[in-house]
Specification:
Elements lengths: L3 E4 L2 E4 L4 E7 L8 E7 L6 E6 L6 E3 L7 E6 L4 E6 L8 E8 L12 E2 L3 E6 L1
Parallel strand pairs: 2-11
Antiparallel strand pairs: 1-3, 3-8, 4-5, 4-9, 5-6, 7-8, 9-10, 9-11
Length: about 120
Amino acid sequence: QVQLVESGGGLVQAGGSLRLSCVDSGRTFGSYAMGWFRQAPGKEREFVARISRNYWITYYADSVKGRFTISRDNAKNTVYLQMNSLKPEDTAVYYCAATLSYSGTSMTDFGSWGQGTQVTVSS
């Protein structure tokens, strides 16, 4: 059972940084690959990053490569998204999600979702 809660969002100026956290209140966090998605106003939810259950294999959307870093601490049941060099176009609600699949970056690949945390980047 996976129950996800995101935190760490807020208002930041362009070029700044934020670190998002997502805590799983369940007991099988290490069994899941984790992902981050985001949804801007009036737009569809899009993939941001994914991290595997082990070996820390990561995958990023082209729009965030080199700026965002996904990581996890299975002992804390937490996945992180370190966001650097933020741009106004990064403004969105960010969601973490969990999947038992070995791969996949679409929304349908992820069965469990958090409630989202707002990230707003000002110019």
